[in-house]
Amino acid sequence: PLVHGHTLVVPKIETDYIFDLSEQELKEILLFAQPIAKAIEKAFPCKRCGVSVIGLEVPHAHVHLVPINSADDLNFTRPKLKPTQEELKSAQNAILSILA
Predict the structure, then answer these.
(1) Which contiguous run of DSSP H or E holds residue 31?
(2) Domain map of the chain by residue range?
(3) Fold of the domain built from segment(s) 7-99
(4) pLDDT for residue 57
(5) Which of 5, 25, 28, 82 is deepest in the core (most CB within 10 A)?
(6) Angle at 15 between CA 41 and CA 82, to 5 degrees
(7) Cα 46–chain centre separation
(8) What value does the mean pLDDT take over residues 93-100?
(9) Between the CA of residue 80 and those of 1, 21, 68, what are the distances in Å?
(10) Torsions phi, psi of 49, nearest 5?
(11) How far apart are the C-alpha atoms of 34 and 17, rounded to whole Å?
(12) Which residues of 24-52 are buried (b: 16+ CB within 10 A; e: fewer)?
């Protein structure tokens, strides 16, 4: 992850390129991501929840939801965090508790 709270939305449909999805499938991914993004904004101090779809390194379309305070926070060339399983679980629980 780039920062604590960085979350991936991965569709069950396996496709390499997000724009190969049907209009309905693409709509469903974004509608699924919306409440998660709002929960991330509440769980992690940030100005916004940034959204990114890159599609080069992993051959399965997915959407990044990243708590951001500036555009530079979405710089994927920066070193990534190496959270422990405990830290990942804590971030997951923070998001899920808001969604509940």
Answers:
(1) helix 23-43
(2) 7-99
(3) HIT family, subunit A (3.30.428)
(4) 86
(5) 5
(6) 45
(7) 14
(8) 97
(9) 6, 28, 15
(10) -105, 110
(11) 20
(12) eeeeebeeebeebbebbbebbebeebbbe
The 3-state DSSP class for residue 13 equals coil
8 A C-beta contact, residue 56 and residue 64: no
State pLDDT tens for residues 47-73: 999 999 998 888 899 999 999 999 999
State the pLDDT confidence band at 41, using cuts at 50, 70 and 90: very high
CA gap 60, 63 in Å, rounded: 10
Which pTM value belongs to this model?
A: 0.93
For residues 61 and 54, give the distance between their C-alpha atoms in angstroms, rounded to a whole number: 9
CB atoms within 10 A of CB 13: 13
* Mean pLDDT of the 37-51 span: 98
Nearest of 25, 19, 12, 27 to residue 53 by alpha carbon: 19
Q: Phi and psi (nearest 5°) for 75?
A: -85, 105
Average pLDDT value for residue range 5-29: 94
